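Following the same procedure, sequence and fold were stored together, as reproduced here.

>
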Amino acid sequence: MSLKRLLALNGAKTSTMILVGAQICTSDEPVIVIPDTTYKRKDVVAIIREVWPDEYEENALFVAQRESKLNPNVVGGSNDCCVGLFQISYSVHRSWLTNIGVTEPSQLLDPRVNAQAALALFKRNGNSWKPWWTKSWRP
């Protein structure tokens, strides 16, 4: 990152003092705060079954289990890029997520919002599981 960019992100100048213990911003991506809300596994399963069409819900459950162990508060991937049940990369999909009302990555920590975003991603890919394919799983 250039010095100019670092200064701009922090509203600073080259003469600004940075003291020990000070926090500086190194990204313009919003910080994701994990909510205190916890969901029971059966509630998460019920949400996925409600959101996803019957013919896709078993694969959706498999993907959510593999991606997050059905924990909607998971933030993972390199640089914490992937959010929620289906580990959706907000920065990659941000342009179209706004069309379904997702304007902040923290919204993807809501299991219903995440399941709806995953279904939208599935549909955007021609009803394909490709965004979640692995070497060993391609339905």
